[in-house]
Write a structure and sequence with these properties.
It holds the Pfam family HTH_5. With 128 residues, the chain is mainly alpha-helical. The chain has a three-stranded antiparallel beta sheet with strand order 1-3-2.
Length: 128
């Protein structure tokens, strides 16, 4: 199968479009995508694997988790842009956006709490 057909096939699934729309807005882990969409971990991982295999998303390690985001490159940009535009139409889009904001707020609070704790220990161990 040609590369173009594989990309179009990857973009042809509503769940993959939903995940693409989310990781296009923010770099997200599988767990965060679970919280946002309510989908199972294995289902999300399978879809992300197919998207990654077709050059639509990339991942990077952050501690124990992988964070996913879309790849915007010349060959795929037009198809990806069109698909992402269509991904804002399903009824899940509005609830996904609200859940995304909630998950990002929770992530920020968790990070702030962690750094406050670390800063306190750092002061006790290394302060004058």
């Amino acid at each position: 199968m040609s590369r173009t057909l594989k990309i179009l096939r990857a973009l042809g699934d509503p769940t993959r479009l939903r995940l693409l729309a989310l990781v296009d807005e923010e770099e997200l882990s599988v767990n965060e995508l679970q919280l946002i969409t309510g989908l199972g971990q294995s289902r999300i991982s399978t879809h992300l694997g197919l998207l990654q295999e077709n050059g639509l998303v990339t991942s990077r390690r952050d501690g124990k988790r992988s964070l996913y985001r879309t790849i915007h490159n010349g060959k795929v940009n037009d198809s990806l842009s069109l698909a992402l535009k269509g991904a804002t139409e399903p009824p899940e889009h509005d609830s996904d956006q609200a859940s995304l904001r909630r998950v990002l707020q929770q992530r920020n609070q968790t990070q702030q709490l962690y750094f406050n704790q670390v800063a306190g220990r750092f002061d006790r161990q290394y302060g004058p």
